[in-house]
TrEMBL record:
It comes from the Bacteria. SUPFAM superfamilies: Adenine nucleotide alpha hydrolases-like, N-terminal nucleophile aminohydrolases (Ntn hydrolases). This is asparagine synthase (glutamine-hydrolyzing). It comes from Terriglobus roseus. Residues 62-151 form the Glutamine amidotransferase type-2 domain.
Amino acid sequence: MPIAGCLGDSPELKRATESSLRRMQFKEGSETTVQECGSAILGAVADGKSFAGDDNLLPVDVVFDGRLFEGRELRAALELPADCNEAAIAASAYVAWGAEFPDRLDGEYAFALWDRRQKRLVLGRDAMSRVSLFYSRPESGLCFASEPMGLMGWNGVDTSLNERAVAMALSLTPPEPQEELPTLQKGIFSLRGGHVMLIGSDRAESMIDFWQPLKVPQLVVKDWREYGDALRAALLRAVRVRLPVEGLVASQLSSGFDSSGVTALTAQVLARQNRPLIAYTSVPAHSVNAKEIMGDRFSNEWPLAAQVAAMYPNVEHVAVPTDAVDWWESLDVMGDNCGAPAGFIRNSRWYLGILTDAQRRGAVTMMEGQAGNLTSSYNGGFGLYDLRSRKQWGLLYRALRNRRKHGGNWKSLLSSTWMPSRNAMARIQRLRRREVPGLFDLSMMRRDFYENSGLAKTEHSAMGATVEGDRTNGAAWRFSILRASEMGMMRSMQRRAFGMEREDPTADRRLVELCLGIPDEAFAPEGIKRELYRHGFRNDLPAELLSEPLRGLQSSDFLQMFEAWIPEWRAELDRLDQSALAGMCLDLPRMRKLLDDWPTMVATNRSSADMAYNYTFGGALAMGRFLRRMEERTGQ
């Protein structure tokens, strides 16, 4: 549950902490705990864990949000009683191992710790950023909270609109690796996952990046099948540690490898406990040919997903249509509870529909598999590039030959071997006198807003290339993309709005470390992409699913749904005309023109139309609506 606190010790700061906790409570009237630690104040809501130290044996105070997966082992290593909570474990771990102690804690958590002897505040988040923690620097001293709403009423915190953050969201531009993680409020920042922040009583700050999995040597095996077996074992362990001891469990089940594998393993574990599993699959509400949008996709994922569900008698399979709930409701629930708008609009209706039905049934946990493309089912996309970079010419020749034998064309194989950066590709296209769309072209920002944001100056620079991730090698690229995935507020949204935990075993830290230790080309043994996963799950999933060459397209009927809502989109644009914030950021005339161009766009190229109306128009509309509603609430 949420935590909050600050440097300093005064009645005003204690009241500010109490108010922060009340704003973040999931249920009105929840109990709060506030500790006055001398030069700091720490607080937690309801079942947030707290620990009060003493000046002699354990001079550390802690508040802790989340859980640890290896609590028993940690208690034994630290010689702690079996009934001590996670906050007490964190306190003892800090004293025993120093400020980098989170490197030894496997779990999903955020914490705040006051060191009485060194007079410093220590903030930290889990390696995979699954639990959120935010901070600000008002004149009274640094303050922190689990969610931005916990800081927005704090005296001295600048909650005015962060225009650069808006521009970054509209263009899907992540912050630089060394940049503080911004929010839509100028004075509020998110602590990076896998980091510890140290703040002294003199307000001096330092940061520790405690998670360094790329420094571990690569895993070498005699037979590539050992990798596949290890992947399955790691994912099974990740599923087990996330399942609740009691209560109904649900899962999202598509026709993809990741959600299917998570659902299958979850069903197996629950079956041994005589417990059911509700598996949800999104199905198109309209008939559609997905190949018109993406040539390698199919439109309806239900048939293959149903084969997975049929393998496990304890699974109840439920279909949820893509238009399950009102579009405005889906966008508003996510925006209100995440503190930021949805980046895309295509999947929001069925996603909320699944959560709504699971809540109605009393589910306490929702299992997902969103990170799997970079972990368990990774396709070895950097394998050829890594072999070329290491000048392993014999292995590269063999890998190219194998991939060619399994259907790879020379153009794509050579591109995968060279892997030119986005900026390099842009230069090549310009030399060929071809138009290269930039961040501005792919968004609906006003030109002056885009220029003032500073993004125009970095787009074609080395700094701008950071949006592609670290391209040193395949493991570095995957790690950089995974670290940029900020999912803490999605967890908070699901807990606050639906009363259930959001669990993704494919984002498990131990699984990630294993996958980063496997050479990229090993993920495509004998030239067959994702063959490690097929081997590992050969007994868990239907052969038809594992051998399917095409992939399902979620919300394949997006264009049909969008067209039916065009009157609603126009009405919202009229409302945005009255919003100063939306008008400052968005090019509303350009958005109207894109709507006017609907018939031509859809008739000319449905693939381009799908991107334009989901990402370009949809992302801008979601941002505009979020800003308009924020403006109405706060009077900004």
